[in-house]
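Hi Y.,

Following your request, here is the sequence exactly as I used it, all 124 residues.
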Amino acid sequence: MVNEAQNLHGENFSDANLRGVNLTEANLTHANLTDALLVRAVAVKANLTRAELVRADLTGVDLTNANVARATLIDTNFTDATLLNADFSNATVTGAYFDDYEKLTGDATITGVHFEHARFGSAT
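Below is the corresponding structure, written out as tokens. Let me know if you'd prefer a different format.
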């Protein structure tokens, strides 16, 4: 079971079902979240620096004030995600889906991010 503020540095959560889990202030640096389901998870102030989020489903996740710097985001789904003050600095973003480009660029830090084949939905 995952509880908030845990040190989960380098843990392997590939293919894990973390739907609705509370990861508030969790240390997930270097964690492997490949193919993980984080639908409606709460990751407020979580540290996901250098985490692997390949094909992860983050639909409805709350990443308010989270650090996602230098993370690998390949084919990651951010539909309805809350990205307020999230830091994506220097993250690798390839084929990821963001449903609202305006929300991403207005709410999150994206310094040094190269969006390769990223997909953006339209704002509602």
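The first strand starts at residue 72 and ends at 74.

Thanks again,
Q.
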